[in-house]
Amino acid sequence: MHLIIPEHYDAKLTVRETQAAIRFIRETFQDEFGKEMNLSRLSAPMFVDRATGLNDNLNGVETPVSFTMADMPGKQIEIVHSLAKWKRLALHRYGFGLHEGLYTNMNAIRKDEDLDNLHSIYVDQWDWEKVIAKEERTTATLQETVKTIFKVIKHMEHEVWYKYPQAVHHLPDEIHFVTTQELEDRWPDKTPQEREDAITKELGCVFLMQIGGLLKSGKRHDGRAPDYDDWSLNGDILFWYEPLGHALELSSMGIRVDEAAMARQLKAADAEDRLQLPFHQMIMKGELPYTIGGGIGQSRLCMLLLGKAHVGEVQASIWPQEMIDQCEAAGIHIL
């Protein structure tokens, strides 16, 4: 357990005021985000059949929460880690056209998460996905989409400032683009997390691109599942977060794999056995649309805009009693 206690922390809002602010942010952001990105809201599953290959494997070492059902004997059902693959299949199933997309409320349990100020075993985010043309699988498409998302986040900052001027946490006016290799070249002796902290402190907000593949050092900046993002066309939106003194990741997103990227990345990850799964077969046969998509943390956005010190101030989850006690003593009220 790694806990940061900011000096002289002031929550600014009571617990009930915070709850009202959470509702305002969530409802306002999803409406504006959906409109700006041409996304329709869809209902989504909280669990999937393991045999479909639809669950997000994250870094490949996390174990999903799973169970069996009385009416489906022999089927292993998994609570999702995210909906990264399900969304692409949904665009195909529901007949979405070029430049149309969806967003949904995604609720997940990641029981292997290391708990700290930013990480909980409960994950809530807006998962979104949009159809693009094959020729739009470019860095330019990725960066233009990131700029649109950043614009919506900045607009939400002004909305929160108008309603809760005493509590709003002000954000930088611009987002910068940098690759993981550029960070390694600049700071070869730092860890990936230290590099993220250094670049976000310097620039305020960055989109860190090309996550998942090997760098020149032979190491990865971070793990990324090989069967949804194209590792050469993905990234994370990171903000420097002064209350905690390090980077805060708000969104992970990217242009999704095509047939070639899928085959290449599964081989690199020694996971070519997944090619036999239904979802992977559909990609290799060209049956699914080319897409761009990602997730935006709901609790993370509330935390960022309200200047909160702990994600437990804006979501209800389970925390070690020691963490709860330390937070309470510092005026950090865990829900």
UniProtKB/TrEMBL annotation:
Which reactions is this enzyme annotated as catalysing?
A: L-aspartate + NH4(+) + ATP = L-asparagine + AMP + diphosphate + H(+)
Q: Which GO terms describe its biological process?
A: L-asparagine biosynthetic process
Which GO terms label this protein's molecular function in UniProt?
A: aspartate-ammonia ligase activity; ATP binding; catalytic activity, acting on a protein; transferase activity
* Biological pathway: Amino-acid biosynthesis; L-asparagine biosynthesis; L-asparagine from L-aspartate (ammonia route): step 1/1
- EC number annotated for this UniProt entry: 6.3.1.1
Any one GO cellular component localisation term in the record: cytosol
The domain of life is: Bacteria
> Which major enzyme category is it?
ligase
- Would the keyword Nucleotide-binding be found if you checked this record's keyword annotation? yes
- Which locations, inside or outside the cell, does it occupy? Cytoplasm
Its protein name is Aspartate--ammonia ligase
What lineage does the source organism belong to?
Bacteria, Bacillati, Bacillota, Bacilli, Lactobacillales
Q: Which gene is this protein's source?
A: asnA
